[in-house]
Amino acid sequence: MRDSRLPALNGLKAFEVAARHLSFKQAADELFITPAAVSHRIRALEDWLGVKLFNRLTRSLELTKEGEAYAALVQEGFAILTRASDELRRSSDAGELVISATMSFASNWLNTRLPGLQDAQNQGRHENFTVRIEGSDQPADLNRSNIDIAIRYGEGGYEDLHSEMLFPDLITPVCTPELAAKIPQPADIAKLPRIDYRWSGFGPRDPSWEKWFHAAGVETPGPETVPSFSDEHMALGQTLAGRGIGLLGIVAAAEPILQGKLVRPFPIALENRAYYFVCQSHSLRRRKVGIFRDWLKAEAARFDALLAEDPRLKFESIVRAEHLTEEP
User: Fold this and answer.
1) Helix 287-309 vs helix 65-94: crossing angle, to nearest 10
2) Domain boundary at 30, 62, 93, which?
3) 107 within some domain
4) Is the N or C terminus of the chain more exposed, i.e. has fewer CB atoms within 10 Å?
5) Spatial separation of the C-alpha atoms in residues 305 and 310, rounded to whole Å
6) Nearest Cα to 206, choosing from 326, 322, 328?
7) Do the domain assignments include residue 179?
């Protein structure tokens, strides 16, 4: 009994293209394969069908009667598939773009910049689609969720995913201007309450107050109860309220610093992990994913330039956190 499954799709496509051009060479050029490969695929299709599709003449190619009838149906089938795919991509590109990001990044960096993307859409520079942010410090599984893009805080190397580094995070003491006036030297930080942020997965390679004091070249203060938070946004809120000096990422603290609500008392930072744009490789073919990626990279480049040029944000000393021990 004849197998009821479809023949190999690469054979059907080779036949459809060769039937349009009546040439294996032109079909090969369109498909980016060799003429011999086109001939082999069509021969396999003919064997599967049990029907000859082409008369192979000395200098030309012609469809048989059966081949001509089959070509019309196959071309119609591919046209239907093309329309269905185009409609799905159009509806997908006009719909919702779901982005996963850490709570701190979403609240303190991304949200302040999203109005710029919306303005560009309103002015017709970008296609309209809605953005939904899902804040979570747990990495989203892009293979098993409806999330289109993730902004991950890590060290890169995301297996089976497309990733691009946006910028590294720089960890530094920040506080209100009133508290900054009380600490003319790094060692004076020990006189005031310190606020600590230790994220999910925090380990010995990550920044800490001990490492920052080491980088500043001062003796680590003795044991002291330091408020610790698992969410950077919470630690930032305590710092803004003037309850102590926070050891925070410049990505989270930049906006309050530029607004004059916080200052960096000392231009010394610990470099830690970095922020990455991450998505499934095939998602890059979707127009709205590409638009958001390009916009995000442009914003990241502007932020990078700001860190290098603005005296309120630039650093004189940056030390890789993992290169320091806990004790000076």
Assistant:
1) 40
2) 93
3) no
4) N
5) 8
6) 322
7) yes
Average pLDDT over residues 139-165: 88
What's the chain's length in residues?
Answer: 328
Instruction: Measure the CA–CA gap between 140 and 278, rounded to whole angstroms.
Output: 10
Q: Higher model confidence: residue 219 or residue 223?
A: 219
**Which among 42, 77, 93 is the end of a domain?**
93
The CA distance from 197 to 313, in Å, is 20
How would DSSP label each residue in 180-195?
Answer: HTT-SSGGGGGGS-EE
Q: What is d(CA 26, CA 121) in angstroms, rounded to the nearest whole number?
A: 42
Kindly report the CATH number assigned to the domain that includes residue 262. Answer: 3.40.190.10
Query: Quick check: 222 pLDDT over 80?
Result: no
DSSP 217-268: TSPPPPP----EESSHHHHHHHHHTTSSEEEEEHHHHHHHHHTTS-B-SS-E
Q: How far, in Å, CA of 235 to CA of 171, rounded?
A: 13
- The arithmetic mean of pLDDT across residues 221-237, rounded, is 81
> Using one digit for the tens of pLDDT, what is the confidence trace for 86-98?
666 665 666 789 9
φ, ψ at 11 (rounded to 5°): -70, -40
Q: Is residue 124 part of a domain?
A: no
Q: What is the CATH number of the domain that holds 89?
A: 1.10.10.10
Alpha helices in the chain (DSSP H): 9-21, 24-31, 35-49, 65-94, 103-105, 111-122, 177-180, 209-216, 232-240, 250-258, 287-309
Residue 71 belongs to domain spanning: 9-93
Chain-centroid distance of CA 25 in Å reads 40
- pLDDT > 80? residue 263: yes
| Least confident range of 98-112, 139-153, 216-230 | 216-230
Going 136 to 142 to 148 to 150, the CA torsion angle's sign is: positive
Distance of CA 1 to the CA centre of its chain: 51
Check residue 4 and give left, alpha or beta (phi > 0: left; psi -120 to 50: alpha).
alpha
